[in-house]
Amino acid sequence: MRASQFFISTQKEAPNEAELASHRLMLRAGLIKRIGAGLYSWMPLGLRVLRRVENIVREEMDKAGALELLMPAVTPAELWQETGRWDVFGPQMLKIKDRHERDYCFGPTHEEVITDIARKEIRSYKQLPINFYQIQTKFRDEIRPRFGVMRAREFLMKDAYSFHTSHACLEQTYALMYQTYSNIFNRLGLEFRAVSADTGAIGGSGSHEFHVLADSGEDAIAFNPASSYAANVEMAEALPPTLPRQAALEALRDIDTPKQTTCEDVAALLGIALQRTVKLIAVMAGEKLHVLLIRGDHHLNEVKTGKIEGLADFRFASESEIREAFNCPPGFLGPIGIDRSQIRVIADRSVAAMSDFICGANKPKFHLAGANWGRDLPEPDVVADIRNVVAGDPCADGKGTLEICRGIEVGHIFQLGNKYSSAMNASYLDEMGQSQVMEMGCYGIGVSRIVGAAIEQGNDERGIIFPVAIAPFKVAIAAIGFDRSEMVREAALKLHEELEAAGIDVLLDDRGERPGVMFADLELIGIPHRITLGDRGLKDGMVEHQARTESEARAIALHEIVSFITSA
RNA sequence: CGGGGUGUGGCCUAGUCCGGUAAGGCGCUUCGUUCGGGACGAAGAGAUCGGAGGUUCGAAUCCUCUCACCCCGACCA
Predict the structure, then answer these.
(1) What ipTM was reported for this prediction?
(2) Nucleotide at minimal C1' distance from the A330 CA
(3) Can you list the residues of chain A whose pLDDT is less than 50?
């Protein structure tokens, strides 16, 4: 490809709208153009990257025996009403009416559509298992689209759905997809991690997320460097403390905390570790107020909390509800002296093992120190794991301690079971001629998000550093003086031809720009290899090779450069 | 949805408080000089200042309404 016949629109300054590195770089490099909130055009250069990702995903899915199909982006309401998701999905679903006032939505996902296909097409166990996938544009009306293509409203997704006669068979395909996903992200050249995940709103049992590791990631991942354990922090278990509760040493006493309404403030006032404080979180569930206790330095885990009996639909208590129950404003609440016949106390495992702790006194401007279970208040009604793990916690697999890193979720695989197949009556006849409901799995990859994630993982002050597998071009030829040097022009055109003949994606910068402009552009758009041709080197038969990942260029003989690149 | 902010040639911004008829840089076009790290000079093109209404002799600037976009929050005492 010759740059003069391509479309490159780089900018020195990024538009103000972008904050995140990948977003700014995608705009500056001219990969995408924003057309509305969470809506982007993929420019020719960006589309090349998107297509590379898409093709790798497609090849690996095909290799795993999945069958590509394409479902409509716009789908009728009736299907969604069958499973109840027309209402459950809420405002995230973009609903559309046609000219006959019939309801449709722009598909945010396609479980219903594929299940409809399966129930109509699959009648016999002999047709199972089967795994269908598509690479299709989705629309989710996010509350707040941000980070460019990473959280766009319209995005490209690969979604696969498998159908089975048994759970064991589903598990086999699930394992195959797990392996396929690992292969895909390895081929993409990304540093990633598969983590155990909560199934969330989609339902089902087993689930793993695939995260590209990046500090700017929206998700926190707990992993064990000493083992293969990795889990979304929402899932990672916080083990009970190994040491038993110490005996009480201190007397219970009031402390003046005129302005200290948080654990941090109280700990700072007393000059003690935050770990010795306990915070109280009041929640409402089943018309009653419940009290959650976690250590001052910990964070509540809402997913875990929701799994406690009676708290499935909990919400945080309002200030007026708190004042009514405690006769005390928020900021000074504690578990001592509350009516335990009315209020259930749920303590995190770490809190249950504490002694001589600090907590609110249930009267304004006071906290209590030297609090002890059994002596100053009854033991907790429930002891459970309700906090997020933190770095340094022992790993649930018993092999060392956890670390926390951040990731960008780019893939998610689920064992759905029969949630959709039974709701939509997707059944088949088994060997005995009996009707059976299919087991389902589903497997998603955020294709467009991967482009952003890859840039988030690979960039420097000069611009994007693409992995070779998804770079828009593998090699760029910077021909210095293309417009005025016969020698450069001839060598550049010949090299361009040879590289193309060798099957290498090459961009010949024949714009005749000054070298600084060419270099800056080629670095910004992240092309892995640059070959610089100029009169200066050519008169000695030499060219210059510059890898995007390295700081120094090296001189290479012109006649060796093609084999150098093909073996790179 | 709550809070904050911004809309001025393709991009980044000044001008807004204190009203006087749109400015600078980048980019673009043409010519010349230059040519291995975002060149220099000259000459140009390009904006009814997000939109609507109002105040005024006069509005980018003041008032009202509206639209769009961005940021923060919607996680905790």
Answers:
(1) 0.91
(2) B77
(3) none
